[in-house]
Design brief:
It contains ten helices and two strands, in the order ααααααααααββ. It is mainly alpha-helical and 183 residues long. Strands 1-2 form a two-stranded antiparallel sheet. It is elongated, with a radius of gyration of 16 Å. The chain starts with a helix and ends with a strand.
Amino acid sequence: MGRLQRLLTAVIVVAICFAADGASAFAGDEDSVLRILAAGQQAMLERHYRQAARVLRDGLKEHPGDNRLRLELGRAYLSAGADGRAIRLFREILGTEPGNRLAKLELARALNFAHQFQDSSEIYRELLEMHPADEAAAIGLASNLLHQQRSPEARNTRTESRADNWVVRNLRWRSDGIRLKRK
């Protein structure tokens, strides 16, 4: 799966999570924040990652306490290949909101891109401890372990996690990794 596909998958997962978790209290004018987020996401969908980062950085000047803008800015940095900036931003979010599940998922993904597999795996495991049915964390951990050539552990992730999602259910394990079973 390419970097763009992983990004788009993450955006979809996050949108689902926002809808499921409900909106938290965020600083600033809600309409303005939503317009900035929409503009940033549109630029990212069009693969204009620097433009997205610029829009989101400007939005943070207007709404400095809004972690949704920080999260999207971190994703823009990640898409632009600025993994270090993204990691710092996700950690900044977790400094103010230690329980922010989405920031933890994105941090784990960014660490994976930066080849910091051990740290990434620890975050995915922490998420699975708190929420054993967390599909994104289960898939992320399995993928991370496969990048490290640790197929047996990745296989265990599938059986130990209670994530019940078509992707998790249809993983077909092979000695060289995984592939999705097509229906």
